Amino acid sequence: MSVQTYSWLLLVASIAAEVAGTIALRYADGFTRPVPSLVVVASYAAAIWLMSLAVRHLEVGLAYAVWAGSGTALTAALGILWFSESMTLLRIAGVVMIVIGVVVLNLETQ
């Protein structure tokens, strides 16, 4: 496996950890519930650590844009699916634009 591929996999793991931490915030109840609160802290720590490893071989601007955009889109989708959050046309359009932006950023580096 190439270093570049490994770095992208680290970035994907970082995104997953960040999303897990954000979803756990819903259950932490203002950090009053110990287990979900520990999941939040551990997930965010893992996300930052994995990102720090990924940016060793990825452009930091690109990596951060992919991380933030993908995390935002995935969190919004999970909120709709798991928490029955509102799904409006405008919200869907916003998530689609985020995904398009991430794709365009990745195409530019090819």
UniProtKB/TrEMBL annotation:
GO terms for molecular function: transmembrane transporter activity. Keywords: Cell membrane, Membrane, Transmembrane, Transmembrane helix, Transport. It is a multi-pass membrane protein. Its main location: membrane. It is found in: Cell membrane. Belongs to the drug/metabolite transporter (DMT) superfamily. Small multidrug resistance (SMR) (TC 2.A.7.1) family. This is Small multidrug resistance protein. It comes from Hydrogenophaga taeniospiralis CCUG 15921. The lineage of its organism: Bacteria, Pseudomonadati, Pseudomonadota, Betaproteobacteria, Burkholderiales.
